[in-house]
Amino acid sequence: MTSFQRVKSGCGMILGAILLASVPAGDASAGFFSGLKKSKTDAFAEANPAKAKEYSEKAGAHAPAKSGECSKCHADPKDPSKRVLEKKPLCLSCHAERDADLKKAVVHYVFKEMDCDACHVPHASENPPLLSAPVNELCSNCHDTTDDAIKKSHGGVSVFEGACTACHNPHASQKPKLMVEAKEHVPFGSRSCDMCHAETKADGKAVLKSTPEETCFICHSNFRNLEAEGAVHAPVAGGGCTTCHNPHVSVRSSLIRASLDSICFNCHESWLKNNHPITRHPTAKESVSDPRREGKPFDCASCHEPHAGKFPKLTRGDFFVMCKECHKK
After folding, report:
1. What confidence score (pLDDT) does residue 287 get?
2. Residue 304: closest CA among 239, 250, 260, 269
């Protein structure tokens, strides 16, 4: 190759590099860059930025609204009323478990005959899970608790403190009366209400016998002697068994009302919730099991006795000893 040919070749390479650098970003999907993915944007969110931002910033936002994936539900950026599918099929396309509910033995007629927006809102709500109002208010739109049939089925009680969904599934169940498919407290399962309840008075409120002496301790007599322990949990000392336990039915073991950390932090200081070691522990998720307690989650009870114990702060033992049960040097 002559000197002239080498110079010509070098100039060609430089010119090619300059031309390549000047290719517009929009054409990057062609040629050498055909394998690169363009950044995805949601057409509906782009066309409605104010609304998309408003919903995405709400704590109780629907998952697609939270992530700005409006086009999962909306088909036309110019017309919000046009959906990808009809209302109910659209919801069932993501919530497959609800589609399975339609095949159960007992299906709530509202869920079966109406669209999901009879109870739920599609974007955001302060009432979980995306309810348009508190659960008991929604139920009272159709069910009158003072109705004789309902009063009779609830032992004469017509005024309820808890949510109807604590015992009833609002969608469907394999059990009669849409009862939650979970573990039932033995007296509740046998409908022996009078084991714990006295006769309901005219005000329609539930009347409990002396708790826990004439209720819980009748069957759970082993808890009578907890006062002898060095430290007793305040709810136990005050007979507040139902603070943590649902006396009727629960999907959790030991009839626990909710995830244990959510129960504990209802009473313990709010600062503790974000600063306690459990919140930063990698197993602090209800789906993760405790390796020391077969079949139970890693939660507050992994380190603390929920009823009574001999150690300060109701710990199960010395902290360092407990850590070594899972962590080796």
Report:
1. 66
2. 260
- Model pLDDT for residues 269-291, shown as the tens digit of each residue: 766 666 676 666 665 566 677 77
What average pLDDT does the segment 209-215 reach?
Answer: 92
Give the torsion sign (CA, 86, 50, 94, 92).
Answer: negative
The alpha carbon of residue 28 and the mean position of all alpha carbons in its chain are separated, in whole angstroms, by 43
List, as one string, the DSSP characters of 46-94.
Answer: HHSHHHHHHHHT-TTB-HHHHHT-GGGTEEETTEEEEESS-HHHHHHHH
Question: 313 in the Ramachandran plot: left (φ > 0), alpha (ψ -120 to 50) or beta?
Answer: left
Report the C-alpha gap between 84 and 71 in whole angstroms.
8
Beta strands (DSSP E) in 84-208 are: 106-107, 172-173, 183-184
Question: Residue 271's pLDDT is what?
Answer: 64
Residues 6 or more apart in contact with residue 70 via CB below 8 angstroms: 42, 44, 45, 48, 52, 64
212, amino acid identity = P
Residue 310 CB-half CA count within 13 A: 2
pLDDT in tens, 223-274: 988 877 888 998 998 888 999 999 999 988 889 988 887 888 888 776 666 6
Q: Minimal CA–CA distance to 308: which of 238, 255, 237?
A: 237
- Which residues lie across from 183 on neighbouring strands? 250
CB 71 within 8 A of CB 43: yes
Residues 6+ positions from 76 with CB-CB distance below 8 Å: 44, 82
Q: With 60 as the cut, is the pLDDT of residue 22 above it?
A: no
* CB burial string 52-88: b at 16+ within 10 A, e below: beebbeeebbbebbbebbbbbbbeebeeeeebeeeeb
| Side-chain-facing half-sphere of 327: CA atoms under 13 Å | 10
Residue 123 amino acid letter: H
Contacts of 163 (CB under 8 A, 6+ apart): 134, 135, 136
**What pLDDT is recorded for position 313?**
86
